[in-house]
Amino acid sequence: MELDIQCEEMSPSRWAELLTTMKSCKTIRLDDCNLSSSNCEDLSSIINTNPSLTELKLNNNELGDEGVEYLCKGLLTPSCSLQKLWLQNCNLTSASCETLRSVLSAQPSLTELHVGDNRLGTAGVKVLCQGMMNPSCKLQKLQLEYCELTADIVEALNAALQSKPSLKELSLSNNTLGDTAVKQLCQGLVEASCNLELLHLENCGITSDSCMEISAVLRNKSSLMDLSVGDNKIGDSGLALLCQGLMHPSCKIQKLWLWDCDLTSASCKDLSRLISTKETLTEISLIDNNLRDSGMEMLCQALKDPKSKLQELWVRECGLTTACCKAVSSALSTNKHLKVLHIGENKLGDAGVELLCEGLMHPNCNIQSLWLGNCDLTAGCCATLATVMATKQCLTELDLSYNPLEDEGIRKICEALKKPSCNVQQLILYDILWSSEVDDELRALEESKPEVKIIS
């Protein structure tokens, strides 16, 4: 049994009702429910008396250190079988880390700990690392984003990594680490026996200086499938170093996020080689990099290679125009694997989207999710988009936000949605002006097709 409630204010009567339900739940998710430390006392009792409970998710609640202390009393009981604990943005400080250390040291069932968006600090996380080093700890996933960590945390982290072969996922994004610390961390990861599968280092003050060490992790950890170094100024030179590791035969990368990394079209030669030859790579994010049309054309050429197995391409806000749309269309008509294309916030215009639609209509194209928000589109391209919607049954999600489509364009899109052959389930239309009459038509459409969700 699963309890999944979000964004609900808990009255005493509602809370008492839910407590009865929780006694038999395997999963409890109560994000954004205005819970406090007093609720944690009740939850501790649930943890203690419900041995089937394996996941507890309490993100974005003001639990505080006192609340976590209550929870940990339940977590430390022999009957507890909890595996996943989510406490993101719960107003925790370093004071919570001693209590959580006790749980890590004594509770072998706990495999996931998510404590990001809390002011734990370097001192607090050093205490958590002591718990990880206990032989009883079997932690597999540790999420420490936005925890106010500094470079001083790396020594303790590396010591924990050395003793924790079970660890598979480590997220340290949005902490002020810097190149020196990241180099040390990567050296520790290379030496550690853990089979790391996910490493997230977004916005950690990384430059090209530490990319050789990250590349070494890619070469030496064939288990690593998910790497995110977005929002770091690695530049084209850093990307070239990363690609040395990414292109190594032992690297099995699947998901690569490089958003806002100061990349230009100069990086696209290396990226194209990666896309066309690394058959494990299924998702790449290049959002907010200055790739321009020339860079996109190189990427599209790579997508046409039979070895490319890419399923998701994110090139939002990359300085693209109508000029690259013929190449994108050609790639869409050739690549059978691509399912998600985020190409919004580029000046494609109606003419560019008309070209894209030629590729979308090709039998080889299997696009499921297409994002065209803020692309300078008007009602002029909506008839062609409507044809794609009504014809291409694989297309289930379409984003047209921030485009001046007006009543004429929205009505054409609505006509397509009404057709039985249209399989679009989510239509995103943020910040588009239309009349009250069209608004009524949209609401009527949602009532007649409840499987369709229109987000505006």
UniProtKB/TrEMBL annotation:
SMART domains linked: LRR_CC, LRR_RI
Leader sequence residues: none
Principal location listed in the UniProt entry: cytoplasm
One annotated Gene Ontology cellular component of this protein: cytoplasm
CDD domains in the cross-refs: LRR_RI
Function: Ribonuclease inhibitor which inhibits RNASE1, RNASE2 and angiogenin (ANG). May play a role in redox homeostasis. Required to inhibit the cytotoxic tRNA ribonuclease activity of ANG in the cytoplasm in absence of stress. Relocates to the nucleus in response to stress, relieving inhibition of ANG in the cytoplasm, and inhibiting the angiogenic activity of ANG in the nucleus.
Assembly and binders: Forms high-affinity heterodimers with RNASE1, ANG and RNASE2.
UniProt-recorded name of the protein: Ribonuclease inhibitor
